[in-house]
Amino acid sequence: MTAQTIIADIETLPAAERAKVLAYVGRVMETDDSWIPDSFKQGMAEATAGKLVDIETVLSGAKPPLRES
């Protein structure tokens, strides 16, 4: 079964049943992040930790501040 087949089947469901499918998918997406690349997760963790450098600073040729480990 392909994603296209599943989508076509979902489209034939009554609105209440489609809502159940969407609610299920939403719950799964909130709890299963295996589809998110590890590099993105790492970038988000670094952003949350404040480990960002202003792009204009880097593009101007200035050295970014030293990172603390």
What does this entry look like structurally?
- With 69 residues, the protein is mainly alpha-helical.
- 61% of the residues lie in helices and 0% in strands.
- It has helices at residues 3-11, 15-31, 38-48, 55-59.
- The N and C termini lie far apart (48 Å).
Q: Would you spell out the secondary-structure blueprint of this structure?
A:
Layout: H1 3-11, H2 15-31, H3 38-48, H4 55-59
Distance between the termini: 48 Å
> Order of SSEs, N→C?
HHHH
Mean pLDDT: 89
What is the total tally of β strands? 0
**Could you give a short account of the major beta sheet?**
none
Unreliable stretches? none
DSSP strand content: under 5%
**How large is the count of helical segments?**
4
Proportion of residues in helical segments:
55-70%
What coarse outline follows from CA principal-axis ratios?
Answer: elongated
- Rg, rounded, reads 21 Å
Structural class: mainly alpha
Indicate how many domains the architecture comprises. 2
Keywords:
4 helices; mainly alpha; 69 residues; 2 domains
A few lines on this structure:
Helix content is 61%, strand content 0%. With 69 residues, it is mostly helical.
